[in-house]
Design goal:
5 helices; 164 residues; 29% helix; single chain; five-stranded mixed beta sheet; alpha/beta; 7 strands
Length: 164
């Protein structure tokens, strides 16, 4: 469940966000956080129960409880409270929560397996970084160093909306 973000990813997020991450709703610690965000919610704080805002970086718990985190970031962004977000998750393309983001938002499909901070070996799964925000070109420029940038086609979004 607990995979600490590699420093290179954190630096790319900071570059995209002009140096400042406003919120990490899934922080590992208040005293020694892996992500240098202005506001941190730890497991004890229950980030799902708080309002989110500004520029968010999220590396949620990877277990079965990931769905509510994905729904929360999507909702907070679509209501405008979150102006931009980068979400690091495993590339579980067969899951509902993955499709929630992949149908609407661009992503970076990380080449190879990430070596998460504190781990001796690379992750046993592929990773992807989703971007929710208006600076898609800048996201692509900053994150292309990690892998392939993929964006949903507008026709796919329109077809989804027509079927609901």
């Amino acid at each position: 469940d607990d995979w600490h973000t590699p420093p290179a990813i954190i630096e790319a997020v900071r570059e995209l966000f002009d140096g400042l991450i406003d919120l990490d709703p899934c922080s590992n610690s208040r005293t020694a956080p892996n992500v240098p965000a202005r506001t941190l919610y730890t497991k004890e704080d229950d980030g799902l129960s708080h309002a989110w805002f500004g520029r968010v970086y999220m590396n949620p718990p990877y277990g079965r409880g990931i769905g509510p985190w994905i729904e929360k970031v999507r909702e907070e962004h679509e209501t405008g409270r979150v102006t931009a977000a980068v979400v690091l998750v495993k590339a579980a393309t067969d899951t509902r929560w993955f499709r929630v983001l992949s149908k609407r938002y661009p992503r970076c499909e990380v080449a190879g397996r990430l070596k998460f901070s504190g781990c001796k070996a690379p992750a046993p799964f592929p990773s992807v970084l989703f971007y929710l925000g208006d600076e898609v070109q800048r996201f692509a420029e900053v994150f292309a160093r990690f892998g392939v940038i993929v964006a949903p086609l507008p026709v796919a979004v329109l077809a989804e909306e027509a079927s609901t």
